[in-house]
Amino acid sequence: MNDPMNTTFPCKKVLLVDDDDIITTIFRIFAKKQVPDLELLTTNDSSKAFELLREFRPDLLLIDLFMPNLDGMSLVRALRSDPELSTLPVIFFTAAYRDPQLRTMLKDPQVLGVIGKPFSPKEVFAQIAELYREYLKRSVEAEVKEVG
Predict the structure, then answer these.
(1) Phi, psi of 21 (to 5 degrees)
(2) Could you give the count of Cα atoms lying within 13 Å of 28 in the half-sphere of its Cβ?
């Protein structure tokens, strides 16, 4: 297995929502090479995101910030009001990673971070894994505090 992190990828199922077909295609190609056990579902139509989230039940949502129909921030706001999807972790992909609105979204504990575009296809899965592992660590620490 060509694991870019030399460890097991921390999530099993990922949904990528990006209106750019080139991005989703590159992502699928590199996922097959670098994380062959990953179940990756992609869509270029953000209006289908909720339907796919309910059917596919991913561990993580990767989403472009600016898209036609439903932009990434609006989608995340809608997720937070849905009891079934409110705790789904999210990573944004965007070329506008300095957008002031994005800083507000990053205060959401389920928004794990931002990966800037253009990204390195060879490094992106290591970045995702690192962000997701940090999220898992924080989740465990929060549970321990709650119990203890």
Answers:
(1) -60, -30
(2) 11
> Residue 56 phi/psi, 5° resolution?
-85, -30
* Distance (Å, whole) CA 47 – CA 37: 27
For the entire predicted model, the pTM comes to 0.88
Q: Is residue 6 part of a domain?
A: no
Domain count across the chain: 1
pLDDT tens profile 18-65: 999 999 999 999 999 999 999 999 999 999 999 999 999 999 999 998
Mean pLDDT computed over 63-86: 91
Q: Give percent helix, percent strand, percent coil of the chain, each to the nearest 5.
A: 45, 20, 40
Q: Check whether the bond before 118 is cis (ω within 30° of 0).
A: yes
Residue 143 lies in a domain: yes
Q: What residues contact residue 30 under an 8 Å CB cut-off, 6+ apart?
A: 121, 122, 124, 125
Answer positive or negative: Cα dihedral of 115, 116, 117, 121.
Answer: negative
Domain holding 35, by residue range, is: 13-147
